[in-house]
Task: inverse folding
C-alpha cells in the first residue's frame, strides 16, 4: 500500500502537476512537495507527489555499484 | 535516467550477490518491515539467491493486514448507514470483518466505491452534495499525509459532506513492540522506504541505538534491496550495528517536512488497535479536535450489534509479527486463497500470504 513510483513532472499549475509515468500522463497534487518543479522526478503515491527524487544521490548510489564491480 | 532501470542492472546485482556470499559467515535473520519489500524480494527471487544461513522474514508492514477486525466491523457498520458513500482504496474491500466484507455489503446495496486517491473521494463529495462521503483512511506515514491533505482541501473548499474514518497507524511503535516482545530473534531490519520518505531515516535510529540491531532503509528495486542486505551483512559480520540508507535518492534524514507539517496540522497521535498485537499507545493517528467536523467517528453513531470475532485457524496475527510463516497455517492455499481469502494477509497484494502464494513460497 505504500507503493510509490517515479514520475516526471511535465507541467505545473498551482498545486496540480501533470506527470509522465512510462508514457502515460496523470494528474498529481504537489501539496506535499511544494518545492517540486517541471522536469523533476517525484515519487507518486495515491495521486500525490510525496518526495522529489534526488538525482545527485541516485548517481552517487550507482557510482558505489560501479566501484564494487571494479574491485 | 528514469530511476527504475538503473537500479535493476544485472551485472551490479551479480556483484552485490557475490559480495554477500563471500562476506557472510554468520547465520542471520533479517526482517523486512514493509510488505512492498516482501513482494519485491519474492518477485526478484532474492530469497533463493542469498546464502542458506541468511533467513528473510516478513514483518507487519501491510496496512490492510494490521487493521483489526474490530475496526473493520466499525467500517461495515458505517457502510450500512443510509445516505452514505464509503470510499476506500481497493484492497480493503475484500478483507473479511467479523461477518462480512465491504464487497459483500456492497452486493447488498451499500454504496461502496474504490478510489485511487483522496482527490477522487473529494470529487465524489462535490458531485453528491446530498450524500455523506466517508473515506476510510488506512495506511502508514506514506499515506497519512495524503489523507491530511484531503481534509485541508475539504475545509478550504467548504465541503461539509466529506468525512474521514482514520485508521492510520505509525510504524516505529509497532517495530518497537515486536522487538520488545522478543518472540522473533532478529539480526537486522530492512526499514520501509516510502514511510521513511515522509518520516526521514532518523525515525529508525532507535534500532541500532536501543536494540543493537543492524538496520538499513531500502528502496524497492532489486539493487536497492541487495545493497541493503549487503549493508546488513557488513554490520552483522563487523558487529557494528548502525542506521544505513540505501535509498538516499528518496529518503532524507529529516524526511519530508512539508508532509510532516500537514500531518501534524490535521492529526493527533492516539492509541491504535493492531491485528495480532492489540492496542498500542501512541501508534495511531486521529483527527485533531479542530477538524472534528470531518471525523467520521465523531459525526456518525457506529452501532455494533455483536462483538467482534476472529476467523478460527487464521494465523494472520502471528504472521504479521514474524512469529509464524504462512506455511505453518493450516488454511494457507487450501481454504485460504487469493480468490477466496480468509485473512487480510491473503487479500492484500502486499500481504505475506499473498506473496508466498503468488511467488512460489507455498512450495517451501
Result:
Amino acid at each position: 500500500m505504500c507503493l510509490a513510483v517515479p514520475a516526471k513532472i511535465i507541467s505545473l499549475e498551482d498545486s496540480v502537476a501533470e506527470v509522465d509515468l512510462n508514457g502515460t500522463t496523470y494528474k498529481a497534487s504537489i501539496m506535499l512537495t511544494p518545492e517540486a518543479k517541471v522536469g523533476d522526478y517525484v515519487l507518486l503515491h495515491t495521486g500525490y507527489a510525496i518526495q522529489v527524487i534526488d538525482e545527485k544521490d541516485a548517481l552517487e548510489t550507482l557510482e558505489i555499484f560501479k566501484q564494487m564491480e571494479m574491485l | 535516467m528514469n530511476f527504475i532501470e538503473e537500479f535493476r542492472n544485472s551485472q551490479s546485482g551479480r556483484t552485490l550477490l557475490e559480495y554477500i556470499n563471500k562476506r557472510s559467515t554468520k547465520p542471520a535473520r533479517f526482517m523486512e518491515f514493509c510488505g512492498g519489500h516482501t513482494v519485491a524480494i519474492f518477485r526478484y527471487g532474492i530469497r533463493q539467491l542469498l546464502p542458506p544461513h541468511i533467513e528473510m522474514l516478513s514483518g507487519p508492514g501491510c496496512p490492510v493486514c494490521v487493521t483489526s477486525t474490530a475496526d473493520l466491523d466499525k467500517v461495515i457498520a458505517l457502510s450500512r448507514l443510509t445516505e452514505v458513500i464509503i470510499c476506500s482504496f481497493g484492497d480493503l474491500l475484500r478483507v473479511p470483518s467479523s461477518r462480512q466484507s465491504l464487497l459483500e455489503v456492497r452486493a447488498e446495496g451499500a454504496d461502496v466505491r474504490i478510489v485511487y486517491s483522496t482527490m477522487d473521494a473529494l470529487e465524489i463529495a462535490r458531485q453528491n452534495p446530498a450524500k455523506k462521503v466517508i473515506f476510510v483512511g488506512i495506511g502508514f506515514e506514506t499515506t497519512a499525509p495524503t489523507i491530511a491533505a484531503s481534509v485541508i482541501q475539504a475545509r478550504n473548499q467548504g465541503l461539509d459532506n466529506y468525512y474521514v474514518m482514520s485508521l492510520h497507524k505509525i510504524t516505529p511503535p509497532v517495530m518497537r513492540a515486536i522487538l520488545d516482545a522478543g518472540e522473533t530473534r532478529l539480526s537486522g531490519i530492512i526499514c520501509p522506504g516510502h514511510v521513511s520518505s515522509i518520516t526521514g531515516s532518523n525515525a529508525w535510529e532507535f534500532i541500532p541505538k536501543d536494540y543493537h540491531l543492524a538496520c538499513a532503509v531500502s528502496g524497492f528495486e532489486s539493487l536497492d534491496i541487495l545493497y541493503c542486505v549487503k549493508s546488513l551483512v557488513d554490520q552483522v559480520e563487523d558487529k557494528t550495528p548502525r542506521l544505513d540508507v540505501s535509498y538516499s535518492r528518496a529518503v532524507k534524514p529529516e524526511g519530508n517536512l512539508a508532509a510532516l507539517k500537514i500531518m501534524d496540522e490535521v492529526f493527533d497521535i492516539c492509541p491504535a488497535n493492531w491485528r495480532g498485537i492489540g492496542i498500542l499507545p501512541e501508534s495511531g493517528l486521529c483527527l485533531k479536535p479542530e477538524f472534528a467536523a470531518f471525523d467520521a467517528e465523531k459525526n456518525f453513531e457506529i452501532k455494533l450489534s455483536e462483538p467482534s470475532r476472529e476467523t478460527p485457524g487464521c494465523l494472520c496475527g502471528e504472521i504479521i509479527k514474524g512469529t509464524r510463516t504462512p506455511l505453518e497455517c493450516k488454511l494457507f492455499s487450501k481454504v485460504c486463497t487469493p480468490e477466496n481469502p480468509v485473512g487480510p494477509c491473503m487479500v492484500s497484494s502486499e500481504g505475506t500470504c499473498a506473496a508466498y502464494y503468488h511467488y512460489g513460497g507455498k512450495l517451501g
About this structure: The first strand of chain B starts at residue 28 and ends at 34. Chain B has a mean pLDDT of 95. The CA atoms of residues 224 and 242 of chain B lie 17 Å apart. Chain B has 17 helices and twelve strands.
